[in-house]
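This section describes the prediction task in plain terms. A model, or a person checking by hand, is given the sequence of a single protein chain and must write out its three-dimensional structure as a string of tokens. No templates, partner chains or ligands are provided. The sample shown here is typical of the held-out split.
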Amino acid sequence: MRIAFVTTQSDSMGGSHVHVRDVSSALVREGHEVKVFVGGTGPFTEQLSANGVAFHSLTHMVRPLAPSSDLKAIGELSRALLDFAPEIVSTHSSKAGIVGRMAGRKAKLPTLFTAHGWSFTEGVGRSAALFERVERMVAKKGGTIVCVAEADRQLAIDRNVARPEQLVTIHNGMPDYPERANPGEGVPMIVSVARLDTQKDHPTLFRALAKIKDKPWTLELVGGGSRKEEFEGLARELGILERITFHGVQTNVRPFLSRAAVFALISNYEGFPRSTVEAMRTGLPALVSDVGGSREAIVEGETGFSVPRGDADAVAAKLGQILDSAELRTRMGVGARTRYESEFTFESMFEKTKRVYRDVIARGV
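The expected answer:
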């Protein structure tokens, strides 16, 4: 196959970037011809080059909806796609999904959109309504949409954003690694791999931890973001700052997961979080917010727990339950690893993705 990928910006490595990197790299290893079209250059394009994946840097692709830049990006991308002449255009993330589908149609090429969590889901904020209208408008023109969570597929149907026959769910899958959870006998370590921004609900996690100060625990936060000082201030106010370590952005989170006793992802909204799959792969019990596809990753009470969004009391209760029982942590960790092996391997996701690509190419839409 000859495949073009489109994503927004290359200055960071979010979940959609990791997905595109892993899938495009695997396709190249199989002998397919691949090029990634992305705004600018940065850590993402560096990783593409390291994996032997060709890329084309776009001048006008930006993250926010910006009509003037977006029109230029559509024209720029459609010309670049015509030069590459792919059999399929695979677009990723909300903004690149919009621009990429419009550019692909302008170039009369079959297009596909992977929604790594909708930008109009509950908890997103003021831009949600605008993104919902634009997504509905673009989806009306047709084309397959891959959702990374069943919750996202159902949300698109409920909001009349796309027709059921346009939508398919393929959960995120991740390559396996040898690291396994080995927390030792010391104070139980909670790890959270999450950006310090409005999507992740660190305030609720902190307030929950303040309710269980009497229990032994430490919290390791992996991820960068603009709200670090704000969160440090809240932790100081709650009297728990000395038990929290902010590690910032890390290119390899596996050492943190292997030392942890429990993984926590407390969020305002999610697609299908890759960090939870990473934790399950390591053999960690997971505590997640019941938002988007987070709940779909776990088996309640067997591999972890889910809690209502913004409910610090529920977070405290479930964390306390996990921290109090080494036997429960071990049992849930074994269950998490088993679930990863059966449901969320990269190989399974990759084969499903290729089948969708071939179907789109065969139908020509």
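For orientation: The mean pLDDT is 94.
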